[in-house]
Amino acid sequence: MAPIPVVEQRPCRRRALPRLIPLALAAIMLSTTVSDGTAMLPSPLLFGTDGVYSPDLRGFRKWRGALDRFARDLADPASADADAWRRFVAALPGADAGPALFEAVNTAVNGRRYVTDPVNWGLGDYWASPLEFLRRSGDCEDFAVAKYLALRDRGVPADDMRVVVLDDLQLGVTHAVLAVRRDAAFYVLDNQQSDILPADAIPHYQPIYAINEQGWWNYGE
Question: How many domains are contained in the chain?
Answer without folding.
Answer: 1
